[in-house]
Design a protein that fits this description.
Two copies of one chain form a homodimer. By secondary structure, chain A is an all-alpha fold. Chain A contains nine helices and no strands. In chain A, about 65% of the residues lie in helices and about 0% in strands. The N and C termini of chain A lie far apart (about 45 Å). Chains A and B meet through helix 4, helix 6, helix 7, helix 8 and helix 9 of A and helix 4, helix 6, helix 7, helix 8 and helix 9 of B. The structure holds a DNA duplex (30 and 30 nucleotides).
DNA sequence: GCGGCAAGTTACCGGTCGGTAACATTCTTG
DNA sequence: CAAGAATGTTACCGACCGGTAACTTGCCGC
């Protein structure tokens, strides 16, 4: 149950040093994603960022708020990724979903992947009033909304059902990634998505 | 990022008092499942169990080992559940999977559910040498194996593909449960499973 | 009643947690 | 160069972390 120790984060003085706040934030994002939120303390973050605790508390009001920022960052990057993957197939929702799943599989199977940071946060953050909870909830709600919208656009027989099923496939992949090296069942996600869409006449 | 405080666990002296070890273990299981593993300290457990830290360390070698026991307990209960659900449809793998998903949906949608304790542990426990990791990995591997075996038994066109897809659906449901009150997309899992099996000619 | 054991009590250990005060240094910019 | 902002340093806070020692109390069967 050990936590990330302040000393062990590779090297404690990264070459570039733009504004401390950014260094701290980038470091925190990586550590939170790789080791989990609860496992990473302020000391570990500031040490890995080559700075000190005071500099941290001059830039962030609290750890919880930093966590919320981390999740907002993950959220916006996710939608950047989504829009980028979807863009080449404008107006062809079926191809958009296929592209999404293809990208999802290759992304999730890469060895650096630790699944979805926001999904992981859903596990770690239980307190209803944690500033990060709202970010997670709205993120996952938007995923559901978009999958359902895509299912509508491709004129599926039961779009809500199809949209939710596609979401389950994707989320399941995130979870599977955490136990299977290289992803395991994740590899089947694209074909499964195709099969579901076929069955819905889309 | 608050943790479960030793004081706030409803009442600190449960009526029945069979052997302390059991009281501690049951309490720990519930707290771990409800609040997460890292969020629950030894103090919180022993207080909620109406005992003290020394009694804990007389029964368990360490917290990590308790966590591993908790996961083993979840694992064996899961297979008890699985076998029970599957039993009435011996020899009819298609019906067995349907029964599994029906039970999975109703279980996961219940308001006490916090998804799959073992999947949650996969998120929280990152250390490769934690005694709980092996339990999680073997649990998820066995799920995959069984789904694939069921797909073979129902003579699916591509049994490995179908088995993995079914697993993704189920795992996705566990994750969705954590952000959507009452489960959200989980409700679509059964129909999605049926659709996939139909498409595989099973 | 007495021995033995299970359980409770109290105090303690070093270490880490998130967070802060006061002060010294360096960097940037006018 | 000087002023002011940004950053670093050190020490500290109370609380909690997982874990332990020494001793006392309660309960059981013989």
């Amino acid at each position: 149950m050990s936590v990330v120790r302040p000393e062990d984060s590779s090297l404690c003085e990264p070459a570039a040093k733009p504004r401390v706040r950014d260094r701290i934030f980038d470091t925190a994002c990586e550590l939170f994603y790789r080791h989990g939120i609860r496992a990473v303390g302020i000391d570990a973050i500031v040490c890995a960022a080559g700075t000190n605790k005071m500099s941290f508390y001059r830039s962030f009001p609290s750890k919880d708020e930093l966590v919320a920022d981390y999740l907002r960052h993950k959220d916006s990057h996710f939608w950047l990724w989504w829009d980028e993957v979807v863009a080449p197939h404008q107006g062809r929702p079926r191809q958009q979903v296929e592209a999404l799943f293809e990208a999802h599989v290759s992304k999730t199977c890469s060895k650096e992947s630790r699944g979805c940071g926001l999904a992981n946060a859903a596990v770690e953050i239980v307190e209803e009033d944690h500033p990060g909870r709202a970010v997670v909830v709205s993120h996952k709600s938007e995923i559901r909304r978009r999958f359902r919208a895509l299912a509508v656009a491709m004129m599926a027989r039961d779009p809500e059902q199809l949209g939710d099923a596609l979401m389950l496939l994707m989320e399941g992949g995130y979870l599977a990634r955490l136990t299977f090296p290289k992803g395991g069942p994740v590899a089947s996600a694209l074909i499964a998505a195709r099969t579901l869409m076929d069955a819905h006449g889309a």
